[in-house]
Structure formats: structure tokens, C-alpha cells
Specification:
The protein is α/β, with parallel strands linked by helices. The chain is built from 16 helices and 12 strands. The strands form 2 sheets. Strands 2-1-3-4-5-6 form a 6-stranded parallel β-sheet, with helices on both faces. A 6-stranded parallel β-sheet has the order 9-8-7-10-11-12, sandwiched between helices. About 40% of the residues are buried.
């Protein structure tokens, strides 16, 4: 039987022991941030809209999650899909399985990495599917290896627990084309980086490229893939020059052509035939710190794309206060709303008339500029990141 003094000592030791256990438990639960392993894929290639979206999400989430990146380096940089770039994704999937942390959410930052989900049923898993354009537009189906790649990454994407899309259009496309056993689809609209895209001094861009400051400029930003409808932009420019002979066309973005579609060659040929070869400037690359000035240099931004899963250049142009003429199809109307002139992209007369209206009317340009800036403020990365964080917390395997 314990004496009173011994009893006090034993109780004190027990209390200390329980206190230690409690402190350990508190320490173990101190970091309740969602644990997220990001599969970002290859990093030795030019940054595109998918990479910029990932960067904007990640920088805003870093303080609120326990995040870690897992990437790989391609054995060689190629502009086209090759057997090597296709096969390199499979060992990456094995590496991801070996390196994944316990109780982590796996986020795959673009649908082209979806093929690794055929090897590993990561759960919980989130994949960002920007669009399924290559699945629904058959001009991309050039060659059996590319067709196989498209099929593999799309069907792999549908194995994720949550497919995240930047627009209702992409969500509807997924539900339409994958009706059997559809995944959970969530829409979180992307934003625009207002530190990069805002009204800027146009002279910085014009002087950098040796362009005159006393001319009108018509701008297009993007690749020359068939769905982008760039020939319609060039033909609109050629016709608009009849009323505005001081108009210059600026095209920013790499060719990025689909195999068997030599669009750049066709565009240059059209301009040359019209005697305007020296009145159009094709810029494959513009430094990041000059892109706001590039948009601000334009009197009108023309973007008659046939198919977009979001349409980031439209939002960037609006953030810079540039009047926008763009398509009334796919995701663009839900992004632009009433802040742009929307036209049928296959109606080149309508594209021309809208472009001329903007060039003629100072009041209309000012109105579109103000509406565009206002719309760009509504679509911001802080809001998008907050919505993604809420999804992580919902999926977190360690949530209490």
C-alpha cells in the first residue's frame, strides 16, 4: 500500500507522463495542413498556359498546404509527340508511386499526365483537365502514335477521383463524351495575374521591337493550331487595311502547328499576295515583362478561336484594358461575358465588322476597356486558390 508521499510522487509521475503523451499528440497534429504531392511532369520545355496555371495556384497555396513537387526531365526536347516522350511518362508514374507520401493527395497538374493513372490508382487524386480538345477535334489525330497518346491520357484522366476544369464548357464536354462511369467533375475558373497583366505603357513594347508609335495595331496572341482560326485573323486584317491603311498586324506566339497543317506558310503567303508582308509582325516570343505593354499597344485584340477550354489570352487582354473581339462559342462567352464583342468565328464578315466598329469608335473602345478590366478583377487567382484549398481539405485523408 502506497504511503501518502509515495502516492503523491506516483500521481505526479503519471501526470507528467500523460502530459508528455498529450504534447506528443499535439505535436503530431500541429500541422493539419493538407499534404499534397504535385505531379508536374517535364520541366525542360517552354511554359504554356497549363504551367502558368499551376504556378499561380502553387504560389498562393504554399502557406496553407504541405506541398511537394515531383517532376522529371525529358531525354530530349521535341516540338512533336514522339515515342520517347510518350514512353517517358510511364517510368515517371513508377517514380511517383515510389515517392508519394503516406496520406497525401496526389494532384496531377495537366491532363496530358493522365496516362500514368493507368499504372497507379492514386487516391485521393485530383487532375486538372484544361480541355479535351484533342479528343473532340479530329484534325489532331495525325498518326497512330499521337492517337494512342490522346486515348491513353484522356482515359487515364477519367480514373482520377476528381477532375478539375477551368470552365463549365470543359465540364460539359467531359460529361458528354464520357457518360459511362463519369468521374466527379468540379469547376474552378482560372484567374489572371494582375501583377503581370494590367494597362501599361505601350511604348516599352513598341520601342523594344522598333515599331512606330503613330500607327494602329491589331493583335492576336496564341498558337497557329487549326482550332485557333488564325487565317481568319489575317484575312480580317487584309480587309480592314482598306479602311485603315495605317493598321499593323501583330501576332504573338509560336507556330505550334499540328502535323500536316503548315499554317505559318499559308499565313505569310496570304499577306505577301496582298502586298502586306511587311505590315505584319510574327513574334514567336515576347519577354514576360513586355506582355502587358504588348496588349496595351493594341487598338483591338481579335481572337476568333473555334474551340477553347478557357481562353486565357482573352482574359489577359481584358486585364490590360484592350478592346476584345472574340468568339461566341465554347468557353469564351462564360469568360468574357459582356466585356467583349462576341461573334460567330466562322463568319468572317461579322469578325471584320466588329473589328472595324472598335477601330472607328473611341467611345466603344473606352467602354470595352472599362468592362474588360472589371471582368478581369472578378476572375482572380486568389479566389481560385481558395476554392482549390477547400477541395483539398475535403479530400484530406487525415482530416478529423
Amino acid at each position: 500500500m502506497c504511503r501518502p508521499r509515495e502516492l503523491i510522487v506516483h500521481c505526479a509521475c503519471g501526470i507528467n507522463f500523460l502530459t508528455i503523451l498529450g504534447l506528443r499528440g499535439m505535436m503530431a497534429n500541429a500541422d493539419r495542413r493538407p499534404r499534397v504531392d504535385f505531379l508536374v511532369g517535364e520541366r525542360n520545355r517552354p511554359r504554356d498556359a497549363m504551367d502558368r496555371a499551376y504556378t499561380n495556384f502553387k504560389t498562393r497555396l504554399d502557406a496553407h498546404i504541405d506541398g511537394r513537387e515531383l517532376d522529371y526531365v525529358l531525354p530530349g526536347l521535341s516540338k512533336r509527340m514522339t515515342a520517347m516522350t510518350l514512353l517517358s511518362r510511364f517510368p515517371y508514374g513508377v517514380k511517383a508511386w515510389l515517392k508519394r507520401r503516406e496520406d497525401s493527395i496526389v494532384q496531377i497538374h495537366n491532363q496530358r499526365l493522365g496516362m500514368i493513372l493507368h499504372l497507379n490508382a492514386f487516391s485521393p487524386s485530383v487532375i486538372i483537365c484544361h480541355d479535351i480538345i484533342e479528343h473532340v477535334m479530329h484534325e489532331y489525330w495525325a498518326g497512330p502514335s499521337y492517337r494512342a497518346f490522346i486515348r491513353l491520357y484522356i482515359t487515364g484522366t477519367m480514373k482520377a477521383d476528381v477532375v478539375l476544369t477551368p470552365s463549365k464548357q470543359t465540364a460539359e464536354d467531359i460529361r458528354k463524351h464520357f457518360r459511362t462511369n463519369p468521374p466527379r467533375v468540379e469547376v474552378i475558373r482560372h484567374g489572371v495575374d494582375r501583377t503581370r497583366f494590367h494597362p501599361a505603357d505601350r511604348r516599352a513594347f513598341l520601342r523594344h521591337f522598333g515599331l512606330p508609335e503613330d500607327r494602329r495595331y491589331m493583335l492576336y496572341v496564341g498558337s497557329e493550331q487549326p482550332r485557333k482560326n488564325v487565317p481568319a485573323v489575317v484575312r480580317t486584317f487584309i480587309r480592314a487595311r482598306k479602311e485603315f491603311p495605317d493598321l499593323i498586324l501583330l501576332k504573338v506566339g509560336r507556330a505550334d502547328e499540328v502535323k500536316h497543317f503548315p499554317i505559318r506558310e499559308q499565313l505569310l503567303s496570304q499577306l505577301s499576295a496582298a502586298g502586306l508582308g511587311n505590315q505584319a509582325l510574327f513574334l514567336d516570343f515576347v519577354p514576360d515583362d513586355l506582355m502587358a505593354a504588348a496588349y496595351s499597344a493594341a487598338d483591338v485584340f481579335v481572337f476568333p478561336s473555334l474551340y477553347e477550354g478557357f481562353g486565357m489570352p482573352v482574359l489577359e487582354a481584358m486585364a490590360c484594358g484592350t478592346p476584345v473581339v472574340t468568339s461566341n462559342t465554347t468557353a469564351i462567352p462564360e469568360i468574357a461575358e459582356n466585356a467583349a464583342i462576341l461573334v460567330q468565328p466562322t463568319d468572317e464578315d461579322a469578325i471584320l465588322e466588329a473589328t472595324l466598329r472598335v477601330l472607328r469608335d473611341d467611345v466603344l473602345r473606352a467602354e470595352l476597356s472599362a468592362k474588360g478590366r472589371s471582368r478581369a478583377e472578378e476572375l482572380n487567382w486568389d479566389k481560385a486558390a481558395a476554392e482549390l484549398l477547400a477541395l483539398y481539405r475535403q479530400l484530406d485523408p487525415r482530416r478529423g
